[in-house]
Amino acid sequence: MISFVLTLKRLLTGLFHAFKLKNFQVFFVLIVLLLVSGTIFYTTEENLSVIDALYFCITTLSTVGHPDFMPKTGLGKIFTMIYIVVGTGTFMGLLSYVAYGVVQSNQKDGDIDTERDRFKKKAKHK
Questions:
Q1: Residue 54 has what pLDDT?
Q2: What span, in angstroms and rounded, lies between the C-alpha atoms of 22 and 27?
Q3: Which of 4, 47, 88, 118 is the most buried (most CB within 10 A)?
Q4: Alpha helices, DSSP H only, in the chain?
Q5: Which residues contact 38 (CB under 8 A, 6 or more apart)?
Q6: The whole model's pTM is what?
Q7: Distance (Å, whole) CA 108 – CA 57
Q8: CB within 8 A of 49, min separation 6: which ones?
Q9: Which residues lie below 8 Å from residue 102, measured CB to CB, with a gap of 6+?
């Protein structure tokens, strides 16, 4: 349980640091727009509930996939193909900035030695 709390703290700190970056903000807005537009599409075209449509959008963008749902209409299948290509790249871009924020927050907290710090430590020992 302690490990989970520490990992969650690192993730939230990384998100805080990532939100300071303009590129992360752009990716975040794009993901929100993708989720909203996908949810609206699947509720209207495929007759899914809002929760099911949002769940399908999130599992699709995160590349997990939804085992039980497959679009039934031709328009739904075409939209899903475009949604996967556009959304997956955008989602991975967002995740890369989250990872960058986590690494930066760990370096600022002193959790991770930078390459320069390791070099300085080796030079002192010689």
A1: 95
A2: 9
A3: 88
A4: 2-18, 22-45, 50-61, 74-109, 115-125
A5: 53, 56, 57, 60, 83, 87
A6: 0.74
A7: 35
A8: 43
A9: 10, 11, 13, 14, 17
> Alpha carbon of 33 to those of 30, 54, 91, 103: distances in Å?
5, 12, 12, 27
Domain boundaries, the chain: 21-124
Cα separation, 27 vs 20, in Å, equals 12
Cα gap 24→98, rounded to integer Å: 8
Find where tokens 């949002």 sit. Answer: 54
Its CATH class, for the domain covering 21-124, is: mainly alpha
pLDDT of the residue at 47: 93
Phi-psi category of residue 114: left, alpha or beta, with phi > 0 → left and psi -120 to 50 → alpha = beta
Q: What stretches in the chain show pLDDT beneath 70? A: 108-126
Give me the half-sphere count of Cα atoms (radius 13 Å) on the Cβ side of residue 99: 6
Report residue 45 as tokens: 């075209």
Handedness of CA 50, 28, 60, 72 (dihedral sign): positive
pLDDT confidence of residue 92: 92
Q: 110: left (phi > 0), else alpha (psi -120 to 50), else beta? A: left
- pLDDT for 38: 96
